[in-house]
């Protein structure tokens, strides 16, 4: 009897955390299996406490921008991309692609690192709904 595939794909490369090669492979996997979960890592927090991830607009912009998805943690959730910080009320979490083309998790007029309890090195998951 054949086993049903689990839908879990692990990509192990030496391409690093960001880059066009790893992104191209991950993007191809998402096109083949749109139910795959996007997992990224927080690279650093800027001086304002915004959390910059290794999820780039070039790699995932069309995949997470066109379909319903959600990032959530303890007591917070983000379920759509914003264009600017002011697209949400003060104190609310948001996700947007910053000027470097990387996904940022932020709090409008706040510090996401403190408020969301995340730090550089933490993994984040973007779950498709």
Would you kindly provide a written description of the structure presented here, covering whatever features stand out?
The chain is of the alpha+beta class. It has one domain: Elongation Factor Tu (Ef-tu), domain 3. The protein is built from three helices and seven strands; from the N terminus they run αββαββββαβ. Strands 4-3-7-1-2-6-5 form a seven-stranded antiparallel sheet.
Give a short synopsis of this structure.
The protein is an alpha+beta fold. The chain contains three helices and seven strands, in the order αββαββββαβ.
Q: How would you summarize the topology of this molecule?
A:
Elements: H1 20-32, E1 38-45, E2 51-56, H2 57-66, E3 69-73, E4 76-78, E5 93-97, E6 102-107, H3 112-116, E7 123-128
Antiparallel strand pairs: 1-2, 1-7, 2-6, 3-4, 3-7, 5-6
Mean pLDDT across the residues is 80
- The assigned CATH architecture is Beta Barrel
CATH topology: Elongation Factor Tu (Ef-tu), domain 3
Number of strands: 7
Q: Name the CATH homologous superfamily.
A: Bacterial fluorinating enzyme like
Helix content: 10-25%
| Major sheet | 7 strands, antiparallel
Side by side, the strands of the main sheet go: 4-3-7-1-2-6-5
Radius of gyration from the alpha-carbon trace, in angstroms: 15 Å
Proportion of beta-strand residues? 25-35%
The protein's oligomeric status is single chain
């Amino acid at each position: 009897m054949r086993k049903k595939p689990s839908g879990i794909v692990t990509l192990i490369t030496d391409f690093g955390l960001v880059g066009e090669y790893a992104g191209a492979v991950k993007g191809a996997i998402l096109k083949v299996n749109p139910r795959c979960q996007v997992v990224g890592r927080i690279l650093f927090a800027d001086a304002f406490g915004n959390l910059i991830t290794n999820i780039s607009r070039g790699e995932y912009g069309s995949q997470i921008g066109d379909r319903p998805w959600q990032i959530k943690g303890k007591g917070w959730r983000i379920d759509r991309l914003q264009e600017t910080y002011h697209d949400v009320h003060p104190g609310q979490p948001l996700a947007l692609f910053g000027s470097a083309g990387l996904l940022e998790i932020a709090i409008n007029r706040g510090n996401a690192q403190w408020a969301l309890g995340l730090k550089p090195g933490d993994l984040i998951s973007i779950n498709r709904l």
